[in-house]
């Protein structure tokens, strides 16, 4: 019999109810239990590695199994191992400072599991963006309900089977379905939601969560600028940009969205970009390691971005080897540079999420800073150049999610580095201790000592209270003198 996953509002509410009841009955899991859950998750992913690779490739039309192994399976395993290695430290209570007046007491923060976490994931990295949040939730001692994307149905199905084989539904449950199910899911009274997806849907999730005052992390999208310092349009730089832009066919939230190149370097940049692509993809867009576009909607959307830029007068350059062969493979778009697109073109306004790189030129770093600051705060920002005054100024004067210097994407793989956007590109963060903490309740506990100085400052107030206040705040005259000397 094929198990039918819960996906009506009532079914999902029932699963949440069962998870919450189990959480309350069993109490917070011990260190050993959490480690065991992480171990089960790790084993499940590795056991299904091949199936996952095949499912992702079938969902995309084509994606190299190496991309799935390196960009998803490896990231997941490393994240699980990182959480396991650091778990004892993360779970530790923290002693906090106690003010002089309260010195006989002790203050501490305990990191307590929140309860049941709702995880909503997109299609572009369907495994890692479902499983890393789950691993974080489990490490922090929570239960979780997962809602993977409907646009990668085969992968979502493997995830469901994998989870059902390894966890009781009271521990982890998977819900399958599209926007309707997503809407009902986000309206559930979880203890926390981690949503990864687009900015417009993120707005809806936040509205739905606000009805139940559910705290949430939003991992959203946006246009991540890539700035190349003067003289740095080198082979090394372009190899790194091509890796970031063309991995997964450009369908990466933190891919370089557009490039800002010094005006003296434009021709070199274009030539090196093409040369780098030729090295990465020796069979052009039909290369084994070059991914297709996930569905017709996104394929048509990307084509229309190119046409809109072309009709507005921008130069469109299909690049790499034999770009015309893209037509031979399902939903495949050749790597494309768009030079000189105006700010009002769709390609400079919308998140691209495909193998198209608009390039603009600049003269000074101030111009770059103004350009970035005039737009929504991006999810990632990349800088290629020396760590000099310009680099320092760019970092200090722009606000984005993470930054990569002389690399692209690799900040995501740094498990000890928090990951998250800011404003329209997201809020909150996971990875690192930040992930553990965002899925934990930081409960402050103050324990009274034997001697209770503050008890002297209770009603009925009198001489002792006056004396205490004088010691702590100073005399009226002294405070007045201080005020007038600082004025
Ligand atoms: P999406 O917002 O369309 O979908 C994400 C999830 O929300 C899916 O599970 C989907 O079923 C659900 N959903 C869709 N419409 C919904 C609705 N109306 N109500 C409730 N739920 C709904 O995003 P996508 O197209 O799957 O993914 C691409 C986007 O995700 C891009 O914008 C990309 O930048 C972003 N992204 C961000 C990160 C990050 O870590 N910040 C990572 C990957 C992708």
Search tags:
7-stranded mixed β-sheet; single chain; 487 residues; binds nicotinamide-adenine-dinucleotide; 6-stranded mixed β-sheet; alpha/beta; Aldehyde Dehydrogenase, Chain A, domain 1
What does this entry look like structurally?
The protein is of the alpha/beta class. It has 3 domains: 9-220 and 431-442, Aldehyde Dehydrogenase, Chain A, domain 1, CATH 3.40.605.10; 225-421, Aldehyde Dehydrogenase, Chain A, domain 2 (3-Layer(aba) Sandwich); 452-486, no CATH class. It has 17 helices and 16 strands. The protein has helices spanning 9-26, 31-47, 49-60, 65-91, 128-139, 153-166, 179-186, 199-211, 235-246, 266-280, 296-311, 346-349, 365-373, 389-397, 432-438, 463-473, 476-486; strands at residues 94-96, 106-113, 116-120, 143-147, 172-174, 192-196, 216-219, 225-228, 258-262, 315-318, 336-339, 356-362, 380-384, 402-405, 426-427, 440-447. Bound molecules: nicotinamide-adenine-dinucleotide. Nicotinamide-adenine-dinucleotide binds at residues 120-124, 129, 147, 149-150, 178-179, 182-183, 186, 196-198, 201, 204, 219-221, 253, 351, 353, 379, 421, 426.
């Amino acid at each position: 019999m094929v198990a039918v996953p819960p996906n009506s509002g009532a079914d999902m509410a029932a699963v949440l109810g069962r998870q919450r009841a189990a959480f309350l009955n069993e109490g917070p899991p011990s260190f050993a239990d959490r480690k065991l859950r992480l171990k089960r998750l790790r084993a499940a992913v590795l056991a299904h590695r091949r199936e996952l690779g095949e499912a992702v490739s079938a969902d995309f039309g084509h994606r190299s199994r190496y991309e799935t192994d390196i960009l998803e399976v490896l990231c997941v395993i490393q994240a699980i191992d990182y959480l396991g290695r650091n778990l004892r430290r993360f779970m530790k209570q923290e002693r906090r400072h106690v003010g002089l007046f309260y010195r006989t007491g002790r203050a501490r923060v305990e990191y307590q599991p929140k309860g049941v976490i709702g995880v909503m994931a997109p299609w572009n990295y369907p495994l890692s963006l479902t499983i890393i949040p789950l691993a974080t939730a489990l490490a922090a001692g929570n239960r979780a309900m997962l809602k993977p994307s409907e646009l990668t149905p085969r992968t979502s199905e493997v995830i469901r089977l994998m989870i059902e084989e390894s966890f009781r539904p009271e521990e982890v449950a998977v819900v399958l379905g599209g926007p309707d199910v997503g809407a009902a899911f986000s309206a559930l009274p979880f203890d926390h939601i981690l949503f990864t997806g687009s900015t417009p849907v993120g707005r809806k999730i936040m509205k739905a969560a606000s009805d139940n005052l559910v705290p949430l992390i939003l991992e959203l999208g946006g246009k991540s600028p890539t700035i190349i310092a003067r003289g740095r349009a080198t082979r090394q730089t372009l190899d790194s940009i091509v890796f970031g832009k063309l991995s997964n066919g450009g369908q990466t939230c933190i891919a370089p969205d557009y490039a800002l190149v010094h005006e003296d370097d434009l021709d070199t940049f274009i030539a090196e970009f093409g040369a780098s692509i030729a090295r990465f993809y020796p069979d052009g867009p039909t290369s084994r390691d070059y991914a297709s576009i996930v569905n017709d909607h996104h394929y048509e959307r990307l084509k229309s971005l190119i046409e809109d830029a072309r009709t507005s007068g921008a130069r469109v350059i299909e690049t790499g080897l034999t770009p015309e062969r893209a037509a031979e493979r399902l939903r495949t778009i050749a790597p494309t540079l768009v030079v000189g697109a105006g700010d009002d073109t769709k390609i400079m306004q919308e998140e691209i999420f495909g193998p198209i790189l608009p390039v603009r030129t600049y003269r000074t770093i101030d111009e770059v800073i103004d350009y970035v600051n005039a737009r929504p705060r991006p999810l990632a920002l990349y800088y290629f150049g020396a760590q000099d005054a310009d680099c320092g100024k760019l970092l200090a004067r722009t606000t984005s999610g993470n930054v990569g210097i002389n690399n692209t994407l690799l900040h995501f793989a740094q498990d000890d580095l928090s990951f998250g956007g800011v404003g329209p590109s997201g809020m909150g963060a996971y990875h690192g201790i930040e992930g553990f903490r965002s899925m934990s309740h930081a409960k402050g506990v103050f324990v009274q000592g034997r001697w209770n100085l503050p008890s002297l400052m209770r009603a009925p107030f009198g001489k002792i209270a006056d004396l205490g206040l004088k010691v702590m705040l100073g005399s009226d005259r002294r405070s007045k003198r201080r005020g007038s000397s600082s004025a």
